[in-house]
């Protein structure tokens, strides 16, 4: 990961003092994003799902990241551009009991505020795409696809870490891949959005992981993403979030409302493997 743990606390103290004294850390990153609508995947969710089906119940988020895995100073210090081919990507987690403002730009207007839990009950974890001084550009469903939300790198409210997992969905070839660094761990066929309700493309991130208690239309499991569906059908009431979820229907076709439908065993493998904040790239 390019980080010497032997001088971790000294480095953390130095960067934290720098944040307080100067309020600026001159680093910037360019990274990737992800996938599809997650309507009604949890009791409290409003994800994209077939309209007539009942809402899922009793869904417990799976595989949350460890609390205080690494301080946010590490994200700021290590978030300079990685060497070509590097797969490590930073993420930040909102501390228990904390609340952060999500802004439209560094020091811009407040779009919304996020607590330590998502709308589905998972720990709130943001994949970090850019660093501008003391501001972090994060992937969030609270801003339009293709945009970033901005949160202040406040060590009192967020902690940081890295993941080398990533998911890539290819709409034209109807397949998805799970990678860890340069290793291809899994490749599987998927069904994607119809021409009227296409799966959005771009860079996104995993926001929630679900297993069991779902509407049968979602199969065994679901991986909710920061992507949203701006082209909902008339009369649709299932919400606008995109997800990768299970199905017993056909694969390799363009028939969903935007979600990435997969075999249960493939979605189950994702839920068992990837952490919250994993980057997801959906490409045409």
Give the ordered list of helices and strands.
HEHEEEEEEEEEEEEEEEEHE
What is the strand tally?
18
What do we call the CATH topology of the largest domain?
SH3 type barrels
Top-tier CATH class of the largest domain: Mainly Beta
User: Percent range for helical residues?
Assistant: 10-25%
Q: How far is the N terminus from the C terminus? A: 31 Å
Biggest pleated-sheet summary:
9 strands, mixed
- How many distinct domains? 2
Structural class from helices and strands?
mainly beta
Instruction: Give the CATH superfamily of the largest domain.
Output: SH3 Domains
Q: Could you explain the architecture of this structure?
A:
This protein has 284 residues and is mainly beta. The chain has two domains: 5-31 and 66-163, Roll (SH3 type barrels); 165-283, L,D-transpeptidase catalytic domain-like (Beta Barrel). 11% of the residues lie in helices and 33% in strands. The protein is built from three helices and 18 strands. It has helices at residues 8-22, 72-78, 264-273; strands spanning 60-61, 89-94, 100-103, 110-114, 125-132, 135-138, 149-152, 158-163, 165-170, 175-180, 183-189, 192-193, 202-211, 221-228, 241-246, 254-256, 260-262, 279-283. The strands form four sheets. Strands 1, 9, 10, 11, 13, 14, 15, 17 and 18 form a nine-stranded mixed β-sheet that branches. A five-stranded antiparallel β-sheet has the order 7-6-5-2-8, covered by helices on one side. Strand 3 and strand 4 (110-114) form a beta hairpin. The chain is globular, with a radius of gyration of 18 Å.
């Amino acid at each position: 990961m390019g980080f010497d743990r032997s001088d971790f606390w000294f480095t953390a103290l130095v960067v934290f003092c720098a944040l307080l004294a100067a309020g600026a850390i001159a680093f910037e990153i360019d990274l990737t994003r992800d996938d599809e609508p997650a309507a009604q995947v949890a009791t409290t969710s409003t994800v994209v799902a077939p309209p007539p089906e009942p809402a899922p119940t009793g869904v417990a988020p799976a595989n949350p990241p460890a609390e205080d895995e690494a301080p946010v100073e590490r994200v700021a210090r290590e978030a300079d551009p990685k060497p070509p081919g590097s797969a490590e990507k930073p993420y930040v987690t909102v501390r228990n009991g904390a609340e952060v403002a999500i802004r439209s730009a560094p020091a811009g207007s407040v779009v919304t505020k996020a607590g330590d839990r998502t709308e589905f009950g998972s720990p709130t974890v943001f994949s970090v795409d850019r660093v501008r001084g003391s501001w972090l550009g994060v992937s969030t469903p609270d801003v339009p696809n293709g945009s970033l939300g901005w949160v202040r790198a406040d060590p009192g409210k967020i902690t940081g870490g890295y993941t080398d997992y990533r998911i890539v969905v290819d709409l034209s070839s109807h397949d998805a891949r799970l990678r860890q660094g340069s290793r291809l761990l899994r490749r599987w066929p998927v069904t994607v959005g119809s021409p009227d309700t296409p799966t959005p493309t771009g860079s996104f991130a995993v926001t929630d992981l679900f297993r069991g208690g779902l509407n049968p239309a979602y199969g065994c499991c679901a991986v909710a993403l920061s992507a949203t569906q701006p082209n909902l059908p008339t009369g649709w009431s299932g919400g606008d979030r995109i997800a990768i979820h299970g199905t017993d229907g056909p694969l390799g076709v363009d028939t969903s409302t935007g979600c990435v439908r997969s075999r249960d065993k493939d979605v189950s493998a994702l839920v068992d493997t990837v952490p919250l904040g994993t980057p997801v790239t959906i490409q045409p």
